[in-house]
Amino acid sequence: TLGTQTDYRDGEAQTDPYSPEYIVRSGSVPEILALATLTWGRGLPAGQAEMEIIDRIREKRAWEAALPPMDSPSNIAKRLKMMEAMERKEWAYREEEIDKLQKVQMEVFKKLLQRQEENRNELNAMRLNNHWQNHQKAKEEKIRKIQHDCALMLRKLIAKRKNWMGKLERRDIIREYNDFASQTYAPLSRIGFFPDNNSDYYAVKNYYLDTFAGLCELEKSTQPSVFPFKIKAPKPKCIITKTGYIKRSGRLEVVLAQVHQ
Fold first, then answer.
1. Which helix (H) or strand (E) holds 40?
2. Distances (CA, A) of 7 to 1, 11, 127
3. How far from each other are the two terminal CA atoms of the chain, in whole angstroms?
4. Taking a C-beta distance cutoff of 8 angstroms, is the pair 193, 187 a contact?
5. Which residues pair with 44 in a beta bridge?
6. Fewest CB atoms within 10 Å of the CB: 5, 72, 123, 243?
């Protein structure tokens, strides 16, 4: 209730002295002080649990008011008995709160374990899928290799069947040139012939046509009469002004003439 201030001070800079938020009269305990710790988000707005706490506080105050005074041995014994009963009741209430809290924690643990199990199952499924895809790729590659080897062996067997006696035959050039499917006309790349290697064999390469220096030299060697450049500028179909522009009326006349045609 006392405030301290200096002798030399400025009125605008002087801080307010300490003043308590509330004053409690001696011998009285207001009920509102039991709810002073409640704040927004932590007890406010009040729900079912807060209302139960308020009711318990009121019951305890009524019980404290109903306690007998300590003026005789019988009242002391009765007071101790009532206090023991209240203590057992509070312990039972506390045990009930602990059980509720444990149930909530168990539900949270169950949800976490379920989510962890779902994530683990999803990861295992993804790994199995990747493993299966890898096996499928290896299987397809093996099948492709077997098919390639099979075609190679079939070609070898067909070639051996043509000459099953194993006789040495000379090359018949006349028969090869009569058969357009022979190696002379359509050689196979598997025997070492690649037609794309000599694709530019018949391409014409000329120094005077492919390089700028050759073009300049060719132009110097030719006579000027070879280049009779006579270009006549076409006459404009529209009326042109002195500055070289076409009037809008002239453009419209051309458009109308085209539409008329």
1. strand 39-40
2. 19, 11, 82
3. 111
4. yes
5. 40
6. 243
CA distances from 45 to 50, 55, 58, 159 (A): 9, 16, 19, 96
Q: Whole-model pTM? A: 0.37
Type of residue at 25: R
Separation of alpha carbons 93 and 87, rounded Å? 10
Angle between helix 48-66 and 73-162 (nearest 10): 160
Which 3 state secondary structure label does DSSP give 43?
A: strand
- Which among 145, 92, 230, 147 has a CA at the least distance from the CA of 100? 92
Q: Which two tokens stand for residue 76?
A: 């002391």
pLDDT in tens, 185-219: 888 777 777 767 777 777 778 888 888 998 888 88
CA distance 184 to 192: 13
Q: Which two tokens stand for residue 49?
A: 């649990």
